[in-house]
Design brief:
The complex is a heterodimer of chains A (about 270) and B (about 300). Chain A has about 270 residues and is α/β, with parallel strands linked by helices. Chain A is about 40% helix and about 25% strand. In chain A, strand 8 and strand 9 form a beta hairpin. The longest helix of chain A has 19 residues. Chain B is flat, with a radius of gyration of 27 Å. In chain B, about 75% of the residues lie in helices and about 0% in strands. Chain B is built from eleven helices and no strands. The relative contact order of chain B is 0.10. About 0% of the residues of chain B have low confidence. Classes of the chains: A alpha/beta (about 270), B mainly alpha (about 300). Chains A and B meet through helix 3, helix 4, helix 5 and helix 6 of A and helix 1, helix 8 and helix 9 of B.
């Protein structure tokens, strides 16, 4: 993004085994100028290792969407260092953001088409990807004919079609019912393991963060800053209702409440 | 492509897949479509009843003796006259001239309106310069252009087409502009994430998203084109050339009330047929494909 970043990139790449996929140092983002300026992110530091699954939790106003936009390259930080290793990341939104005029298969195919994949190969890859997210039977359906959970799976298939090594998710399951969400947690976890992706997952839901992440990073609000980090060391199969998940979620939840209380104006 | 495989291949039963399939079936609404014939009948009968009432009212006014029958003829006289003109070939000749003008004028309007729309959408300066002018032109009654058109092009078909294009192009351009203005920001972001830039962004994201509003503009443009054309054919009579408007004018000059009303019915029917058969059908199918209307 800038000369400084390029230099740092080279410096880091000399140590390949510990190379992070995403490295943010002192990232600050200010919207507006002068008296009206809003500091969305203030000196945020964050490192996400290649192949890891990191969850960010924070209340409203923690600048998570701003952060994801910066990592995705859709927006530039006001100051600070952004290093991305492994190509341009892809981003999945809370709403699936599928193109309503295209079918399921065409939505996935568009990602390939925009990358210049030849058409015969596209058809095969689309079929594989739809199979992967268990939607083979719905290739010809349009987004409005699918449920919210199915649309998110199409969005996931579309993101995978971009062959990005880094997947950013902005509260992707926030609008789904609990049963669907639990299944999609399993689905995402499986794809992450099988494809060896690096995932940065943003959520309001502390339990969801503990259920999925190898690490949970707590963000403060207005301005956003990483205030605490929790490694999730839970062996075996993790479920959202596991006692270990609850225990850690309670600890993180307490700290989150503290962050929110700081903003009470009494 | 990459080492991804469904769980079933790994030897375990694909429980997750089965669960998802179960949920998918439960969540997809079962569409019950009304049979086609039934839909046509349901849509047609209120219109037929309304038509019957209108014809009945007309007949009653004639029977009341409010105006003498040579000024206000009854429906049966008018439709008889319509049939006679059709059988004699006058109607077909007039309608074919008018429809040819409509097609040429509208096609030119689409071309001009489309080019202006695309230019305004792409350039901020141009929008600031002519954006509100286009909306202003839309409100200008097209008949007001005729004196100028006749000065510039005399009593010719060019004069008529000139006004048709001026009448229809602003609506067409405006439809495109407002369609592009109202592309959901989320879809633009999705396009950026997918790497759609430059022309690809217009081709795959912006123009398809702007399609419904553009079709609405095309539909409005047709209404303006048809009105302008009728005004033009009444004002610009080209010697030796028949047309729907010319027939209307001759009927008035010869005080031929049945012929006059018959021609008015032709004008109304052509306007409705194009609007309903062409534009409403296209509009409905676009909206249905995007889930914007109830398909059932």
């Amino acid at each position: 993004m800038s000369a400084v970043i390029a230099d740092r990139d080279r410096a880091v790449s000399s140590a390949p085994t510990t190379a992070p996929a995403i490295r943010l140092e002192g990232v600050t983002k200010v919207f507006g100028r002068g008296a009206d300026a809003v500091v969305a992110l203030d000196g945020l530091d964050l490192t996400v290792d290649v192949g890891s699954f990191v969850c960010l939790v924070g209340a409203s106003g923690c600048g998570k969407s701003t952060l994801l936009n910066i990592v995705a390259g859709l927006d530039a930080p006001t100051s600070g260092l952004v290093e991305i290793d492994g190509g341009r990341p892809t981003l999945i939104f809370q709403e699936a953001a599928l193109f309503p005029w295209l079918t399921t298969a065409e939505n996935v195919e568009l990602a390939l088409r925009l990358r210049g994949v030849p058409s015969r190969q596209r058809r095969e890859t689309v079929a594989d990807l739809l199979d992967l997210v268990h939607l083979s039977g719905f290739a010809g359906k349009r987004p409005h004919e699918l449920s919210g959970g199915m649309r998110q799976r199409v969005a996931l298939a579309r993101a995978l079609a971009q062959e990005a090594r880094i997947l950013l998710l902005d509260e992707p399951f926030g609008a789904l019912d609990a049963i669907t969400r639990d299944l999609l947690h399993e689905e995402l976890e499986r794809i992450w393991r099988d494809a060896g992706l690096t995932i940065l997952f943003v959520t309001h839901n502390v339990r969801e963060a503990v259920r999925l992440g190898q690490r949970v990073v707590l963000l403060s609000s207005r301005p956003g800053r990483a205030v605490a980090e929790f490694p999730v060391v839970i062996g075996g199969e993790r479920r959202i209702e596991s006692p270990e998940v609850s225990a850690l979620a309670i600890t993180i939840g307490q700290q989150l409440s503290e962050q929110v209380r700081r903003h009470a104006t009494t | 492509m990459r080492p991804l495989r469904p769980l079933a291949e790994a030897g375990t039963v694909d429980q997750l897949g089965t669960q998802l399939a179960g949920l998918d079936t439960l969540e997809i609404p079962s569409l019950r479509r009304t049979p086609r014939v039934r839909r046509i009948v349901d849509a047609a009968w209120p219109k037929l009843v309304a038509l019957a009432i209108a014809l009945g009212a007309w007949e009653l006014v004639v029977l009341s003796g409010w105006k003498p029958p040579w000024l206000l003829p009854s429906p049966s006289t008018v439709f008889g006259e319509l049939w006679r003109e059709f059988a004699a070939g006058d109607l077909v000749a007039a309608v074919s001239v008018t429809l040819r003008r409509a097609a040429i004028g509208y096609a030119l309007a689409v071309l001009v309106g489309g080019i202006i729309g695309v230019l305004v959408v792409r350039s901020k300066t141009l929008r600031a310069a002519v954006g509100s002018l286009i909306t202003g032109l839309q409100t200008m009654p097209s008949i007001a252009w005729f004196p100028l058109a006749i000065l510039l092009f005399q009593l010719s078909e060019t004069a008529i087409l000139f006004v048709v294009v001026l009448g229809a192009a602003p609506s067409i351009a405006n439809g495109l502009i407002s369609g592009v203005d109202h592309v959901p920001p989320l879809l633009l972001r999705a396009g950026r994430v997918l790497g759609a830039q430059g022309l690809a962004k217009y081709r795959h994201v912006i123009l398809p998203a702007a399609l419904p509003a553009s079709v609405a503009g095309l539909k409005q443009g047709w209404a303006f084109a048809w009105r302008s054309l009728m005004a033009g054919e009444l004002l610009v009579l080209i010697p030796g050339q028949t047309s729907v408007g010319a027939q209307l004018q001759f009927s008035r000059e010869f005080s031929d009330a049945p012929g006059l009303i018959a021609m008015m019915i032709v004008i109304l029917v052509i306007g409705i047929v194009v609007d309903v058969v062409v534009f409403s059908t296209v509009e409905r199918s676009i909206r249905a494909r995007r889930g914007l209307v109830d398909v059932a």
